Amino acid sequence: MISPLVAVTGASGAVGGRVAARLARTGVPVRLLGRDPSRLPRLAGTTAAPPADYGDGEAMRRALDGAHTLFLVSAHESPDRVMAHTTAVDSALAAGVERIVYVSFLGAAPDATFTFARDHWYTEAHIRMTGARHTFLRDSWYLGGIPGMTGADGVLRGPGGDGRVSAVSHDDIADSASAVLLDESDTHDGATYDLTGPEAFTLAEAAGELSRRTGRAIRYVAETTEEAYASRAHYGAEDWELEGWVTSYEAIAAGELATVSDAVRTLTGRPAQNLATYLQQNPDSYSHLLPGS
User: Is 88 within 8 Å of 72 (Cβ atoms)?
Assistant: First the structure.
């Protein structure tokens, strides 16, 4: 029996690329989608779709023609991201896609503190209204973002207060997504899985773990909202993007990212990585923090 074709978006990225590689190893037919096909990974048993941008309905229909399942990684943040997502979803269904597995965000809600999480709620709502088979994977902050957002000066700063975050690794997301995608039964239809790490930690505790790993004093500075905007002003980002950056920390302070779920273990059969294990296995993630770097 020939397995149905799975289309993987964002296949040149951290989540989509990992999912594509995992599916390819199983022999499932996979089509890789991206705006720039030259950046897509070369994986045995996979094919590359023509260039397709989420907001280009006709291009998406061509790229998804013949696919049974769509793994939809959320688009880069933008003021029109929800419109791009809904166009991609509608195009997929017009092309004959029967099932959508969407990468959402923990605590997605129309009034979420983290402004970008609102985009995910509206996207989820649109997918539900189509009536298509669907599964939502709501991932927390990325574990890799913890060292990534720590400056070379050894300071992790933001208005996160004493709130906790249940950050999760890209690998745990990819393993969980692959498990869902490879199960063609109706087990996951209509399900929403919170993909989190095994613990929720404060940013001060994260700085402590980075200190132990790097052998250098890393500290967390709990900014006020005003200080957070001021310390990021030099990036020259647009207002909507700055608001997203700052509110991601404010969501931690508000307790909206403290949820700890066993979904990774349920879907993969193994526990999710914690921060200490992640740092041990990914030394490149904090190389900019090492003494003398």
Answer: yes
Closest to 85 in 3D by CA, of 41, 146, 157, 134: 134
Judge contact between 42 and 17, C-beta under 8 A: no
User: Do 240 and 132 touch, CB atoms closer than 8 A?
Assistant: no
pTM (whole model) above 0.85: yes
DSSP for the chain reads -PPPPEEESSTTSHHHHHHHHHHHHHT--EEE--S-GGGS---TTEEEPPP--TT-HHHHHHHHTT-SEEEEEPPPP-TTHHHHHHHHHHHHHHTT--EEEEEEETT--TT-SSHHHHHHHHHHHHHHHHT-EEEEEEE--BTTHHHHTB-TTSEEEES-TT-EE--B-HHHHHHHHHHHHH--SSTTTT-EEEE--S--EEHHHHHHHHHHHHTS--EEEE--HHHHHHHHGGG---HHHHHHHHHHHHHHHTTTT-----HHHHHHSSPPP-HHHHHHH-GGGGGGGSTT-
Per-residue b or e along 141-161, where b marks 16 or more CB atoms closer than 10 Å to that residue's CB: bbbbebbebbeeebebbbbbb
Please tell me the distance from the alpha carbon of residue 98 to that of residue 57, in angstroms, as a whole number.
Answer: 17
Indicate whether 1 pLDDT > 70: no
Backbone region of residue 162 per phi and psi (left: phi > 0; alpha: psi in -120 to 50; beta: other values): alpha
Tell me the average pLDDT across 100-109.
98
Banded pLDDT at 69 (limits 50, 70, 90): very high
